[in-house]
Sequence to fold (332 residues):
Amino acid sequence: MASLAEIRARLQAAENKGNSNQGGGDRAIYPHWNMEEGQSATLRFLPDGNTKNTFFWVERAMIRLPFNGVKGEMESKQVFVQVPCVEMWGDACPVLAEVRTWFKDKSLEDMGRKYWKKRSYLFQGFVRENPIADDKTPDNPIRKFIIGPQLFTLIKGALMDPELEELPTDLMRGLDFRITKTQKGGYADYNSSKWARKESALTEAEQAAIETHSLHDLSTFLPKRPGDVELKVIKEMFEASVDGQPYDTERWGQYFRPAGVAAPGGAVAGDAEDTPAPAARPALKVAVPAAPAAEDAFDEEPAPAAAPVAAAKPSGNAQDILAMIRARQNKQ
Fold:
């Protein structure tokens, strides 16, 4: 049994970890999904700190694998493991290679959607109007935003408008984006969200925050790219999940595991996508937790994998970047 001193030390360590949320911590992520129905939040998106990125967002694709409990545990509660879909990097995904064939059989369509990749988009910026009372702005006010496909469609719609002359992320002539939460069919609905009609400059405090903290490289919040070994593990877990097997910590715990499940070495995963690295082999880590199902559960239409489009380096001119974005979207 742990001593009182050890218990206090562990509690203090947990508290310190919760308070050190700079950059990749939970408080850096703005939970717009926690707004009440009818509320709105005003965001100001910022450019990606990675100047090689044409866009001011990065796309993330994850696959959610359900398991009938954990092997060796008495309780048979369903658990989930989220793994990166390697089509994010233009690679062949071992899961989708199988799942795509299921959509040729109508009886397998529901199963196919269950294992289909879920897209979300990672942005950064300021929260200029915040209706969430218990959300506290961290010391670094440059927040991260997890945007689902419904909101993303509205966000990129403005970029396709030929009358738009300046990037919405411009520090002096940019546009705010207002997220409004309503409800439709029992689910959160964001179709009332829209861009501001008038341009505005960042405040002196916001400009100072960029100078002090710098812009995030959004790619650092994506999961680590799986190697051959991890791809083999993903395929094994997928097949076991489809077969109705429980999650096997001994087989897969050092690579991917559900929230609350300890690795073979004893570490416990704090998030469904956050896998601490064991001593023997670095485990893949996803720095950004998933948004709630109501925001992030929109599946894209299953389709054959398209060849990856080579990223062109933007010239820095707003008109050139807007033209590039529109050209890319027209090809999709």
